[in-house]
Amino acid sequence: MKLLRPGLLILLALGGCSSDAPPEWAGKSGNVEPAKLVEFAEAARFEVRWHSDIGDSGANLLQPALTGDAVYGVSFEGRLTRLDRNTGKQVWRIDSGIAVSGGVGGGDGLVIIGGDKGDVLAYDENGKLRWKGKVSSEVLSVSKVADGVVMVRSGDGRIAGLNAADGKRLWLHERSTPALVVRSHAGVAVQRGVAYAGFAAGKLGAVSIKDGSVLWETMVSQPRGNTELERISDITSDPVVDDEQVCAVSFQGRVACFEPAQGSPIWNRDISSDKGMMLLRKYLYLSDAKGSVYALDKTTGSTSWKNSQLFMRDTGTPYAADNIVVVGDFEGYLHGLSREDGSLAARIKLEGGAIKAAPLQMDNGLLVQTRGGEIYSLSIK
């Protein structure tokens, strides 16, 4: 992960860039080792249905996109690939001509990617370029199409709402940022015409998808500490939302949940995370900055269970599937934890290094992309 200061780029030791090395943030002096994998009695099993190589993600958090019969993936070098959803076989591959830093987004027949120079490209499902847009700086994330709008987050802290029909800008949300911010690939969470987004300095906002107007803004966590580094409390992952609440978590800060319409606080507690979360039924699942995985009661924030066996393994965004919670780590292991008590239930080693992007639900199983560009379709037995 990187820190950004106007005119200056600084590497922050939060996550290693190598897919086969321990995360750099495992200890300031390197004396804290990631937890060794332990043996356990398997209660479930991952099985590979198919896998395909779409190209390396580089230092970016690139994630595949799904349609009814296809999987779309992109490499940081700009190769956009369509795979058959059932078999994983390549249908087509094109060279976009840009260095890709955000995507894949889309919907409504579009496949959308963004580049490190602010280019936003939209293709149809046959790989034909439909339109080309532009935002103010490096594209960090591209949303799914919502109410005819594609929301693009850029490295300067802005969110641009682009018309899904032609790529023209409909609105721009911009706000002041601290002198030092964490570079992240946080996107937006969409619910009932509203986009929820986390920002630097621990702020969470609700923005109208129609015109970009700010509906409300609130604090998830207040910056604390004596130095600029200590005071970083940016929200670096997507918020999660359902009909009852919207939740966000900050690095070196808190996790907090709010009422979606007005932003009224429901609860908060001190947990630091630079990863994402999943909200499902009665529970909020998250990985903290040290690799522990939590299941929190979504109504009160109390801990239902916590698993610390993946300490410092750079665990990614959890995904709750069937009876297990799935998380990836820096070595390319995919771990399944029991949804009942958090105990280890399943494990599989995937090719292609670290698993950074959140798994996606697909056909009674999962779709997982590794940093090295291997896409896996997995079932859970």
Characterization of this structure:
There is one protein chain. The protein has 381 residues and is mainly beta. It folds into three domains: 32-59 and 280-381, YVTN repeat-like/Quinoprotein amine dehydrogenase (Methylamine Dehydrogenase, Chain H, 7 Propeller), CATH 2.130.10; 62-184, Beta Barrel (Lipocalin); 187-235 and 238-272, Thrombin, subunit H (Beta Barrel). It is built from no helices and 35 strands. The protein has strands at 2-5, 8-11, 46-53, 65-66, 70-74, 79-84, 90-95, 100-107, 110-115, 119-124, 129-134, 139-142, 149-154, 159-163, 169-173, 181-183, 189-191, 194-198, 203-208, 214-219, 240-241, 246-249, 255-258, 265-269, 277-280, 283-287, 293-297, 303-307, 319-321, 324-328, 333-338, 344-349, 360-362, 365-369, 374-380. The strands form nine sheets. The chain has a four-stranded antiparallel sheet, with no helix packed on it. It has a four-stranded antiparallel sheet with strand order 4-5-6-7, with no helix packed on it. A hairpin with a 5-residue loop joins strand 26 and strand 27 (293-297).
Features:
381 residues; mainly beta; Lipocalin; Thrombin, subunit H; four-stranded antiparallel sheet; disordered N terminus
